[in-house]
Specification:
Distance between the termini: 60 Å
Helix content: 25-40%
Strand content: 25-35%
Structural class: alpha+beta
Length: 287
């Protein structure tokens, strides 16, 4: 059996000065919405890290207690299954400003910046955090270290579960046209679904369904090949009027359907979602 390496040792080998005051933090938040920079934001640390890095940094910077007091660096992780956590970067603590949250409670707004030199490790290193009762922020010392249990491909290679799929056009094309991530093809070909396309520019939605033997993969391949419109009338018009408009779209899965579902069954469930959400909201649909 090979020698076990710790996160402290691994980061030290990559140039982190482990004689500094360092904390490890694990972000795993079950809340559906959070106040960040004075605004109510929907989502979770994983989404913000992947798609809005400024929000992610704001999320970990603003704290109700002085959790980063006397800290030089934080080693940041996003919580995954059980007690595991995935490394997403080293950040220096460059100062703090005390303010208040909108409800008047204290807010310690830490100024932080990401430290370069660890890019090849980011998203790839998995550690065991330990018991769920352990605090989400802990000092990283020689006798309170964390074992590296796995070195994996990055987030893009890992299928996150159907409920967590959220793809922009570039992601969709990398997965389907370039087929860089084989696990994604296996999972998206195994089932059909009800899906939603969100237009981040207009805030409008398109609700669709898949009902073919290639599953989600078969339908979403058309979107990847056509620059985002997939031959849908309204989406196609938007893409024709403004080249690259498809970059405003994102794809997510609302409900999994069997691979052998009939077209009539899938379209009936699709209609139910349109009725629930409201036809005004689903204005990218033509039916």
């Amino acid at each position: 059996m090979g020698r076990i390496i710790s996160i402290r040792e691994l980061l030290s080998l990559r140039g982190l000065d482990v004689t500094k005051r360092i904390k490890v933090v694990r972000h795993k938040d079950s809340r559906k919405e959070t106040i960040i920079r004075g605004k109510l934001e929907h989502g979770n640390p994983y989404d913000w890290y992947r798609y809005n890095r400024e929000l992610f940094i704001g999320y970990q910077s603003e704290q109700s207690k002085e959790v980063y007091k006397d800290v030089d660096y934080i080693v940041s992780f996003i919580g995954e299954h059980g007690t595991t956590a995935r490394f997403v970067g080293v950040y220096s603590i460059d100062g703090v400003k005390q303010t208040t949250f909108p409800d008047g409670t204290p807010c310690f707004d830490y100024r932080m910046s990401q430290v370069s030199g660890f890019e090849e490790l980011e998203e790839r290193i998995i550690i065991d955090w330990g018991s769920s009762a352990i605090s989400w922020h802990q000092w990283l010392t020689k006798d309170k270290d964390k074992e590296v249990i796995e070195i994996t491909p990055g987030f893009d290679n890992v299928f996150p579960g159907y409920e967590n799929v959220l793809l922009r056009l570039g992601d969709l094309q990398n997965i389907i046209l370039r087929q860089e991530y084989p696990e994604w093809k296996r999972m998206l070909s195994a089932v059909n679904c009800i899906y939603v396309i969100s237009d981040r520019k207009s805030k409008a939605l398109y609700i669709g369904s898949t009902y073919n033997t290639e599953g989600i993969w078969g339908r979403w391949k058309q979107y990847a090949e056509t620059g985002g419109h997939g031959h849908d009338v309204t989406l196609r018009r938007l893409c024709e009027e403004e080249p690259q408009y498809g970059n405003n779209f994102s794809w997510a899965i609302l409900e999994i359907l069997p691979l052998n579902i009939s077209q009539d069954e899938a379209v009936s469930i699709e209609k139910r979602y349109k009725d629930k959400l409201g036809r005004e909201v689903c204005s990218l649909n033509n039916n």
